[in-house]
Design brief:
Elements: H1 13-16, H2 21-34, H3 41-54, E1 58-62, H4 65-78, E2 87-91, H5 96-104, E3 108-112, H6 126-129, E4 134-140, H7 150-158, E5 162-166, E6 192-196, E7 210-214, H8 217-226, E8 231-233, E9 236-237, H9 248-257, H10 261-278, E10 300-303, H11 307-316, H12 344-352, E11 353-356, H13 364-375
Parallel strand pairs: 2-3, 2-4, 4-5, 5-6
Antiparallel strand pairs: 1-7, 6-7, 8-9, 10-11
This protein binds pyridoxal-5'-phosphate (PLP).
Pyridoxal-5'-phosphate (PLP) binds near residues 140 and 198.
Length: about 375
C-alpha cells in the first residue's frame, strides 16, 4: 500500500515510527520468540514503566482506550461506588468514545459545553449541570491540553464527585493546577484515568492498546479482573467480565517507545510555538497556548468560518489537514435520544475546527512554511 506523497503530510505513521523502528522490532521479536503470548512479564514491565511515568501506584494494560474507559465505569459499578442511572458530566465536544463508555455502563452522560479558545470543558458550567444523581466528572484532555483546574477540584470535593480522566490524547501533559496529592501529570490528577495507544496518538502502538492508571488498589484489582473474564484467580469468576487484555507484543513495543515520548511531545510544543508566533490571518483563529506550555499538542486546531475553502486551499498547496470532529456525540445517529439538546458551542466548533500538521513528520522549517501558506489564504 503506498500513500501518495504530499509536501506537508498531516501524519504518516511510517515516518513517525522510523526513529523507534529498531527498538520496536527487537521488542516484538522478543515476544514472538518467548512463547508467551497473553499477559506475563512484558505487560508487567510496561505497566510498571507507565505507572512510574504517570506517577500513580497502579497501571493496568487494556485492549484499547475505549475499553480502558469502559472498565473504569464498570469497576466502579461492581464496587458499589457508582450505581445504574447515575449521571456523569462529559464535555459536549469530545470524541464519541468518551460518551460510549458512559452509556455502555448504564450511566447517563450530562453534556457541559467547552471554552472555545481551549476546546476544554468549562469548569464554571459544571455546578449548573449537577443533580442529586451526578456522581462523576469525565474530564477529557482534548487535543493534548490538560483539562483540570481549582474550580473543578473544588466542585468535585463539594459535591463528592469522582474525577475520571480521558487521557487518550494527553500522555505526558502537565497541568497548571496540581492534584490533592501534589501531582501535575495527566493520568494522575483524578481518581482514575484511561489512556489510548491507538497508532496516531502521541505514544502509539502498532495496533490497538490502552491502559488505566489509578492510586486506588481496589479499583486496579477490579479492572484487572474485569479485563480477564472477571477472574480473580484461575477459573474463579467474581464478575461477569470481558476479554479486554493488553497484547504483550503491543506492551513490549510501547515500553520500547516510551523513552522517546518526551522528545515527540517537546517537538510538538516547539511547532505549536512557531504556529502561535507566525500564523496571522484575519479569517483564522489560533488555539490558546499557555506559557509554560503543558499541552502535548496531540492536535493543533484552528477555527475558521471558511473551513471548506481553507481545506481546499491547503490541499492545493500540499498541506494535509484533518477535522476532529465534524459531528458532536449528541448529534450522532446512534444518540438520537440526545438530538434535541441545545449545545451551540459544540455544534459551532464541529463546523469550524481544522487540524494542521503537528508531529515528527513536520519540521520546524515546515511549520514556518505552513504558517506562511495559511497567512496567504483569502476566502
Ligand atoms: C482515541 C480516543 C479514545 C479511544 O481510544 P481507542 O484506543 O481508539 O479505543 C477515547 N477518547 C479520546 C478522547 C480519544 O481521542
Amino acid at each position: 500500500m503506498s500513500i501518495p506523497k504530499i509536501k506537508y503530510p498531516f501524519l504518516n505513521l511510517k515516518t513517525i515510527n522510523e526513529k523507534t523502528l529498531q527498538a520496536a522490532e527487537e521488542a516484538a521479536c522478543r515476544v514472538i520468540r518467548s512463547g508467551w503470548y497473553i499477559g506475563g512479564e512484558e505487560n508487567e514491565a510496561f505497566e510498571t514503566d507507565l505507572a512510574a511515568f504517570t506517577g500513580t501506584r497502579y497501571a493496568v494494560g487494556t485492549s484499547n482506550g475505549l475499553d480502558a474507559l469502559r472498565l473504569i465505569f464498570k469497576a466502579y459499578l461492581y464496587l458499589g461506588i457508582l450505581n445504574p442511572d447515575d449521571e456523569v458530566i462529559v464535555p459536549s465536544n469530545t470524541y464519541i468514545a468518551s460518551v460510549l463508555a458512559v452509556t455502555d455502563a448504564g450511566l447517563k452522560p450530562v453534556f457541559v459545553e467547552p471554552e472555545e479558545g481551549t476546546f476544554n470543558l468549562d469548569s464554571g458550567k459544571i455546578e449548573n449541570a449537577l443533580t442529586q444523581k451526578t456522581k462523576a466528572i469525565l474530564t477529557v484532555h482534548l487535543y493534548g491540553r490538560p483539562c483540570f483546574d481549582q474550580e473543578m477540584k473544588d466542585c468535585a470535593k463539594k459535591h463528592n464527585l469522582l474525577i475520571i480522566e480521558d487521557n487518550a490524547q494527553a500522555i505526558g501533559a502537565v497541568s497548571k493546577t496540581p492534584s490533592d496529592s501534589g501531582s501535575f501529570v495527566t493520568g494522575s490528577l483524578g481518581d482514575a484515568a484511561a489512556f489510548s495507544f491507538y497508532p496516531t496518538k502521541n505514544l502509539g502502538a502498532m495496533g490497538d492498546a490502552g491502559a488505566v492508571t489509578t492510586d486506588d488498589a481496589d479499583l486496579a484489582k477490579a479492572i484487572r479482573a474485569l479485563a480477564n473474564y472477571g477472574t480473580d484467580r484461575r477459573y474463579h469468576n467474581i464478575y461477569q467480565g470481558y476479554n479486554c487484555r493488553l497484547d504483550p507484543i503491543q506492551a513490549a513495543i510501547l515500553r520500547a517507545k516510551l523513552p522517546f515520548l518526551a522528545d515527540e511531545n517537546n517537538h510538538r510544543r516547539a511547532l505549536a510555538e512557531i504556529y502561535d508566533i507566525h500564523v496571522d490571518n484575519p479569517f483564522v483563529k489560533r488555539p490558546l497556548r499557555d506559557i509554560p506550555d503543558g499541552s502535548i499538542w496531540h492536535q493543533y486546531v484552528l477555527r475558521t468560518d471558511y473551513r471548506e475553502e481553507l481545506r481546499q486551499y491547503l490541499t492545493d498547496k500540499q498541506v494535509g489537514t484533518d477535522v476532529l470532529y465534524p459531528t458532536p456525540p449528541h448529534m450522532q445517529p446512534c444518540y438520537s435520544c440526545f438530538k434535541d439538546l441545545d449545545l451551540p458551542i459544540a455544534k459551532k466548533l464541529a463546523q469550524s475546527v481544522v487540524s494542521i500538521p503537528i508531529s515528527s513528520c513536520t519540521t520546524e522549517h515546515d511549520a514556518r512554511q505552513i504558517a506562511r501558506i495559511i497567512n496567504d489564504f483569502r476566502p
